[in-house]
């Protein structure tokens, strides 16, 4: 009987200790593998009650630069930290921010200046190492051993999305087709004056059910290769429209910055491009398209101003011209338009342009087609949600010229809010006018 009583006593002691000494911390993240616009559920359990901890996120970009974000937390009475409910007391973000470990990413100390985090190969995920550290730590994370850590993947392409290179005549781009039988509504996706082929937004749109074509129309490596002209965009539109997996009468234009200027121009004047709707992010209705890319950027460079070694382009077309021949006649647009504007845009006069666009469309009688989203303290680069904010980054205007630093504007927290809210509204807008509305011929 004695061995049995001794064993019973040991079990009682173990039960007692289990109520006093917590188990090893447990980090739970859902989903571990998901789309970049999916919210994360991050919970840390089995900490000591009222325990100071740091949650840290680190990502190595395709350019081999490291980006990090971190928040300082105190566990509750049960030894738990729930990121979506508990406030970060300090770090790269403060307050209750479910996605703070994503949108507040910044280059680690000692990194190259002027970096911008952008996905190049959408066939591969963004990989993040999320870790929990003892105490409130703000530096030297590589020298520390975390209490617990996990690796997660964030994708722009959902499972089943197909990617196709487009090379027809002079037109270059990438088409993303959603999973399923199709055909699908189509989106012609145009980025800004940085040039090159930018695929990640088009890939994400395809993940939400839109056949999306990322269009290359400015090539910084060879500016003479692609001219900015009406025929190029009309041909690209027809390529998308004629694809077997695309509904030819349910197409949209989506432009950012320079791409928005193209969108306004084509929607107003083209007889070939007849979109069901348009989305213009950080755009302007003052044509900056000259006979060639070189002439366009030479004209801009002659009008920019420099403050703190940062180039500011927002004044190059201010004040907004009163001469109607110097502006796109947006009064001729006959499809719904969603205009997304950052109130602290330092790259383009989008706020002033939005006001003038509204006045023109009011006089023309088509103001009802325009929806304007204005986000105070947001900057120019309004991207898909949870992308880090870039107030100023390196920018190459022409081949052979030195890098410049462009001021985009915006503050991190309101900019992050703008990206999350505008993306939700952009998807809803496209759903409404491409999936649910009855197609109408352009007047």
UniProtKB/TrEMBL annotation:
Quote one Gene Ontology molecular function term. fatty acyl-CoA hydrolase activity
Q: Provide the BAAT/Acyl-CoA thioester hydrolase C-terminal domain boundaries.
A: 228-435
Q: Where in this chain does the record put each Acyl-CoA thioester hydrolase/bile acid-CoA amino acid N-acetyltransferase domain? A: 37-168
Query: Per its UniProt record, what InterPro entries does this chain match?
Result: AB_hydrolase_fold, Acyl-CoA_thioEstase_long-chain, BAAT_C, Thio_Ohase/aa_AcTrfase, Thio_Ohase/BAAT_N
GO BP: any one term: acyl-CoA metabolic process
Active site, UniProt feature: 257, 345, 380
For this protein, the record's Pfam families field holds:
BAAT_C, Bile_Hydr_Trans
Q: Which residue positions does the secretion signal occupy? A: 1-23
**Its family?**
Belongs to the C/M/P thioester hydrolase family.
Stated name of the protein = Acyl-CoA thioesterase 19
Species of the source = Electrophorus electricus (Electric eel)
Designated gene of the protein = LOC113584004
């Amino acid at each position: 009987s004695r061995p049995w009583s001794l064993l019973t006593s040991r079990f009682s002691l173990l039960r007692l200790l289990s109520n006093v000494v917590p188990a090893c911390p447990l980090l739970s993240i859902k989903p571990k593998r998901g789309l970049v616009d999916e919210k994360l559920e991050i919970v840390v359990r089995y900490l000591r009650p009222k325990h100071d901890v740091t949650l840290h996120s680190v990502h190595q970009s395709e350019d081999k630069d490291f980006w990090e974000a971190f928040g300082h937390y105190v566990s509750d009475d049960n030894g738990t930290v729930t990121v979506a409910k508990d406030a970060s007391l300090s770090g790269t973000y403060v307050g209750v921010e479910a996605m703070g470990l994503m949108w507040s990413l910044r280059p680690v100390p000692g990194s190259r200046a002027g970096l911008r985090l952008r996905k190049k190969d959408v066939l591969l995920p963004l990989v993040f190492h999320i870790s929990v550290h003892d105490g409130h730590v703000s530096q030297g994370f590589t020298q520390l051993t975390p209490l617990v850590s996990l690796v997660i993947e964030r994708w722009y392409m959902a499972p089943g999305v197909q990617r196709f290179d487009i090379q027809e005549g002079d037109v270059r781009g990438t088409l993303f087709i959603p999973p399923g039988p199709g055909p699908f509504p189509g989106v012609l996706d145009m980025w800004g004056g940085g040039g090159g082929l930018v695929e990640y937004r088009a890939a994400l749109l395809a993940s939400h059910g839109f056949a999306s074509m990322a269009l290359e129309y400015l090539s910084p490596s060879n500016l003479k290769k692609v001219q900015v002209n009406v025929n190029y965009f009309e041909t690209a539109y027809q390529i998308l429209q004629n694809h077997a997996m695309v509904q030819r009468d349910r197409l949209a234009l989506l432009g950012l910055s320079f791409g928005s200027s193209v969108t306004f121009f084509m929607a107003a004047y083209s007889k070939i491009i007849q979109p069901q709707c348009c989305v213009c992010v950080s755009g302007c209705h003052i044509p900056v398209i000259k006979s060639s890319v070189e002439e366009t950027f030479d004209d801009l460079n002659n009008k920019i101003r420099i403050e703190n070694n940062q180039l500011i382009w927002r004044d190059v077309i201010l004040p907004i011209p009163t001469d109607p021949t110097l502006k796109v006649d947006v009064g001729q647009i006959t499809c719904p338009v969603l205009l997304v504007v950052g109130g602290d845009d330092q790259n383009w006069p989008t706020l002033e342009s939005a006001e003038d666009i509204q006045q023109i469309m009011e006089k023309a009688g088509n103001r009802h087609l325009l929806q304007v989203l204005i986000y105070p303290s947001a900057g120019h680069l309004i991207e898909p949600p949870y992308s880090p904010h870039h107030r100023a980054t390196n920018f190459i205007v022409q081949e052979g010229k030195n890098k410049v630093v462009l001021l985009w504007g915006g503050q991190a927290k309101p900019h992050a809010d703008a990206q999350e809210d505008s993306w939700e509204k952009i998807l809803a807008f496209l759903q409404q006018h491409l999936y649910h509305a009855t197609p109408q011929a352009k007047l």
